[in-house]
Write a structure and sequence with these properties.
Rossmann fold; six-stranded parallel β-sheet; alpha/beta; 2 domains; seven-stranded parallel β-sheet; 13 helices; globular
């Protein structure tokens, strides 16, 4: 099975790497498409076959294309599979059908049920629930960082590690409103780790880095993969970000600022002045522990680290029962958008 892992943004790397590993273990041919403008951020250059040239992807004559983003060129051969770039179903566009995909591989019942309703309406794609590949490593590495955590607690002489991971969207991010308050959490009791989204405004990142220079127990994390820090941390602070759900799946508490989620099963504040009290209360008593089970059961009930395998198995079964699409029928306006975004092929 000739397979392309299709990236448009750096967040795709961590999502698709577990899929790459599974495909290679099953002896499938795998090629990555990484646009020239983000290739310098691609961390797997030495271990993966990749190209920045869309013509080479066309010539590869794909059977399957896995896509965590919203778009994929209609003119590429192959079953076009949406694997999603997050768990934040409340974000604008998460359930928007853009007509690029033949198959949606969903993370859990909450998403599956909604997309199956949409599939009945549009009648041009299928939906199969598999779990999300990015989370394979989250569960497989669950016990990997105990020593690292002890070393950090000893090094900084603290009791807790707090992870601040805001979203990048200007209308949803807490990074501006919480800036002055969040840094006060870096004290003798807590180590504050700050992990920004790859698309966060560089001015915001630079300002935080500058402020952290004067605060010994506050660090901006440079690594693109957040999984290690999800596992190391005792508490997360965020906003309307998919990473909140990833943290909750570890059965650990989170606090959000002005979350737009329709299924809030955690502490949510609406005023920066509430942050310190909320954090202190959560450390003393995890009052949302029972409610988190609803998120775990509905958003991603798979904890075996085998979502990538379920994806590959689902796709293999699908293409045995259905012809591989030579291209995807799209309205003219969307075809033009794809050509403008990715270029054309011969």
């Amino acid at each position: 099975m000739r397979t392309t892992l299709f990236c448009k943004n750096p967040y795709a790397f961590g999502i698709l790497k577990p899929l790459h590993n599974e495909l290679i273990s099953q002896n499938h041919e795998v090629k990555w498409f990484v646009p020239i403008d983000i290739v310098n951020k691609f961390p797997f250059k030495k271990e993966c076959d990749f190209t920045t040239n869309i013509q080479k992807i066309h010539n590869f004559n794909n059977d399957v294309i896995f896509v965590p983003g919203n778009e994929v060129p209609h003119y590429l051969r192959g079953l076009k599979v949406q694997v999603f770039h997050g768990l934040a179903g409340e974000k604008k566009g998460h359930f928007r059908i853009r007509k690029y995909f033949d198959l949606y591989l969903t993370q859990g019942p909450y998403f599956t049920n909604k997309f199956k309703i949409l599939a009945q309406k549009h009648k041009d794609f299928k939906v199969i629930e598999t779990g999300w590949p990015k989370l394979d490593q989250l569960f497989l590495q669950k016990d990997l960082y105990h020593t690292d955590k002890k070393e950090l607690l000893n090094k900084y002489k603290v009791k807790k590690i707090i992870l601040y991971a805001p979203t990048f969207s200007p209308s949803l991010t807490s990074a501006i409103d919480l800036k002055d308050t969040i840094l006060t959490l870096a004290n003798t009791e807590n180590l504050l780790l700050i992990k920004f989204h790859d698309l966060m405004d560089n001015k915001v990142v630079s300002e935080y880095k500058s402020l952290c220079k004067a605060i010994p127990n506050a660090k901006v994390i440079e690594e693109s993969n957040i999984i290690k820090y999800l596992l190391l941390s005792d508490l997360m602070i965020s906003d309307t970000s998919s990473v909140v759900y990833e943290f909750l799946l570890l059965n650990k508490p989170a606090i959000t600022y002005k979350s737009k989620s329709k299924n809030i099963k955690w502490g949510n504040i609406t005023n920066p002045k509430q942050l310190i009290t909320s954090v202190n209360n959560t450390i003393i008593e995890d009052t949302f522990k029972d409610q988190r089970n609803w998120i775990i059961n509905n958003y991603h009930p798979y904890t075996d680290g085998k979502s990538s395998k379920r994806m590959v198995d689902a796709v293999e079964k699908y293409i045995k029962e259905n012809p591989i699409p030579e291209y995807r029928k799209l309205p003219w306006s969307r075809k033009r958008k794809m050509i403008k975004m990715f270029g054309n092929v011969i």
